[in-house]
């Protein structure tokens, strides 16, 4: 077990290093000269002034040296200074991250509760209920987030006036954005839950439990649903980890001051330090959560532990 954890952590570190290199290189491969933005768009820039700006930000150094300096500073908590806001990037992230984390947590609760409930209902009832759940989740998956956001704003924000439609970070402000973010995830989790439970119902131990006269409700809870928890929990973790990237569209549409909208503004203004920091944060969060989910898989599903021990 300890060796497996060590291997996973080593793989995590290697993946993060490779990703950080790609992020740093992609930002500086973008069109435009960073010096132009660092100079504040001033006109009639002299070669001496441009040279001073390059020297100040070490832009004349080789790419490998710039990457090494940026990575070392990032590991020490220094993510640079925003070109646009002239503020520390770490402070910008600290101010905006709570809104994004609250949105992701709210959406996670919604898609886990609703998705698992729909999947269980479809697997247990079958027939028309199953078809209805599958059709409804298919429709939810096909609706783009900005279309769903527009519809929710129009109905529940403007016409009914139940929820505010922009800004803020309170529970009511996050409700419509969280629903928008959770729609596609509900479809994924409900289908995974349904499929996992259908497979569990065909196993021998479930057949034996049913033949012994155990109540169907207890069979579903003790054997079918419990056996299906492994893939369901794994998929919930993966979907939740990927939601940070999904907040870009949702936060922009609803005017939330999170890291998603911060990333959009940074890209539009060529604010390289902010762009790099936000992308790195999203990747680190995704890789960390997926690694933790994989490590926890044997604890959730004993069959995975047996398979790994055999391997």
From TrEMBL:
Topological type in the membrane: Multi-pass membrane protein
Residue span, ABC transmembrane type-1 domain: 97-293
InterPro entries, per database record: BPD_transp_1_N, MetI-like, MetI-like_sf
Domain of life: Bacteria
Listed GO biological process terms: transmembrane transport
Main location (coarse class): membrane
Keyword terms, alphabetized: Cell membrane, Membrane, Signal, Transmembrane, Transmembrane helix, Transport
Transmembrane helix found in the keyword field: yes
Entries under PROSITE patterns matching the protein: ABC_TM1
Subcellular localization: Cell membrane
Pfam family, one: BPD_transp_1
Secretion signal, residue range per the UniProt entry: 1-29
Family: Belongs to the binding-protein-dependent transport system permease family.
Identification of the protein by name: ABC transporter permease
Lineage of origin: Bacteria, Bacillati, Actinomycetota, Actinomycetes, Streptosporangiales
């Amino acid at each position: 077990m300890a060796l497996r954890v060590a291997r996973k952590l080593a793989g995590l570190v290697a993946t993060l290093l490779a990703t950080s290199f790609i992020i740093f290189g992609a930002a500086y491969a973008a069109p435009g000269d960073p010096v132009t933005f660092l100079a504040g768009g001033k006109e009639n820039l002299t070669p001496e002034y441009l040279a001073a700006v390059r020297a100040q930000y070490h832009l004349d150094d080789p790419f490998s040296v710039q990457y090494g300096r940026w990575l070392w500073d990032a590991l020490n908590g220094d993510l640079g200074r925003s070109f646009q806001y002239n503020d520390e990037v770490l402070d910008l992230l600290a101010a905006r991250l709570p809104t994004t984390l609250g949105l992701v947590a709210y959406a996670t609760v919604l898609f886990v509760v609703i998705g698992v409930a729909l999947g269980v209902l479809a697997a247990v009832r079958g027939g028309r209920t199953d078809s209805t759940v599958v059709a409804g989740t298919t429709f939810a998956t096909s609706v783009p987030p900005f279309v769903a956001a527009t519809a929710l704003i129009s109905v529940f924000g403007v016409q009914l006036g139940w929820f505010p439609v922009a800004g803020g970070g309170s529970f009511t402000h996050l409700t419509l954005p969280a629903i928008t973010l959770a729609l596609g995830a509900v479809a994924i989790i409900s289908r995974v839950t349904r499929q996992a439970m259908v497979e569990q119902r065909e196993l021998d131990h479930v057949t034996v439990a049913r033949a012994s006269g155990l109540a169907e409700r207890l069979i579903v809870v003790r054997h079918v649903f419990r056996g299906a928890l492994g893939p369901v929990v794994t998929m919930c973790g993966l979907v939740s980890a990927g939601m940070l990237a999904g907040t870009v569209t949702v936060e922009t549409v609803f005017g939330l001051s999170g890291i998603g909208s911060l990333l959009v503004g940074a890209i539009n203004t060529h604010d390289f330090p902010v762009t790099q920091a936000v992308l790195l944060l999203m990747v680190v969060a995704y890789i960390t959560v997926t690694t933790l989910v994989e490590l926890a898989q044997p604890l959730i599903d004993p069959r995975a532990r047996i398979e790994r021990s055999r391997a």
